Amino acid sequence: MRGSLRVDRPQIPAGMVAIPVRTRLVAPGEDLAALIQASVEGIAQPGDVLAISETAVAIAQRQAVPAEYVRPSRLALLLSRNAGAMATVSQPESVQIVIDNVGASKVAYAAVMQVLGRLAGRRGMFYEILGEAIAAIDGYTGTMPPFDNMIVFAPQNPDAFAQSVFERTGIGCAVVDANDLNTAKVLGASSGVNRDSIAEALLSNPHGNGDEQTPIVVLKWRADGANPLLGAEA
Questions:
Q1: Mean pLDDT throughout 42-57?
Q2: Choosing a second label site near 232 at 20 to 30 A (CA), which of 34, 66, 72, 196?
Q3: Most distant pair of Cα atoms in the chain: their distance
Q4: Which class does domain 5-63+154-221 fall in?
Q5: pLDDT of residue 212
């Protein structure tokens, strides 16, 4: 089902519209650019921007692993038991992948600093210290079957992917990470796309975090004046 959701944010001009586009389930190895092109035909046009879910891009690139293939260590189990329910680190398999990537000592250090930081009134030290090592992992909770028990990694070369979609469709593209916690980030974009405007437009997460199956959101500018979706170089 296709529908539109008007974006109403004080940080961006009135007139921005977001249209979630439903697709079939993205499969590992999928020619995602072709799927995007077919899905937005008759909906998107030059001057719009296609916001593509990072999860869809990563799955198409085979950047995912079944959680059952990961054996959590004692450290991973300990940290996951003391994490918030919404956090990626609440999943011991996800924590173990971080440990495998950066080492147990760094993860343990980050955990200690997280505790000390909270005592000092500073939050987020764990994520700040581990940086992309943990930001690049999307836990399996809330993902649609058959990926509901898979750990999804960050997409590879998101700028290049976005550019390839633009070259195929003639429409600007951005690979985005948005969630229901009022945060959105542009991981990659084709030339000419205004990344800040895209991130602001997606704060309400029109992609959805459930079973909407809408990995594409078409962003449109329906007002007079310069199009804030596109940068000066477009």
A1: 94
A2: 34
A3: 59
A4: alpha beta
A5: 64
